Amino acid sequence: MSWQGHVEKTNDRDYEVEERRYRTMEAASTRLQKEAKGYLDSLRAMTASQMRIAETIDAFYGDAGAKDGVSRSYKQAVEDLDAETIKALDGPYRTTVLEPISRFCAYFPDINECIKKRNHKLLDYDAMRAKVKKLVEKPDKDVTKLPRAEKETEMAKAAYEQLNEQLFTELPQLIDLRVPYLDPSFEALTQIPETNMRKDILIAGWKKCYRKFGI
């Protein structure tokens, strides 16, 4: 216990260690969720950019491209790649990687609310202890005040200890759960097919464009 102002503050070192571990995991998991979503967004942006390039080439060739089929072939290759990307990566990535990470992170708001409630109960308990201490050191004319304050202190203590014990037990369990829960997602990520399976088609399309203009 320590003094802060006129209220003696209760410290639970063991709980504080577990909460710090939880905060570290929360920050890392939230960042992982953000980066995982960013990866998918980047993939979509890349395929969208490829499609715009194909449309620009098609417009650049105009009727000449329609005759020899060069620009249309390239555009079709890009469309096929876009479709294959969605089929081979977008869906599986969302199902096996992004959604499990998001579900894991969805626990955090409830846990944080419980931690907040625990801290409020601790403040209530410390305030009641300070009130009892003051009544003991300087008795009030109303002799019933001290017994009432002591009873309220016991109630505040019980409410605080219940939440404190719950969090002290459950936080390590959640921290330990992160490995078996998220490992399958990382394993799935390594098994998702590469998205450049049609890269050779795109390169061939570019080469045709270059040759047509003597580049």
UniProtKB/TrEMBL annotation:
Domain of life of the organism encoding this protein: Eukaryota
Keyword Transferase: no
Domain BAR: 1-215
GO molecular function term, any single one: lipid binding
GO cellular component, one term: actin cortical patch
Keywords: Cytoplasm, Cytoskeleton
Name of the protein this chain belongs to: BAR domain-containing protein
Lineage, highest ranks first: Eukaryota, Fungi, Dikarya, Ascomycota, Pezizomycotina
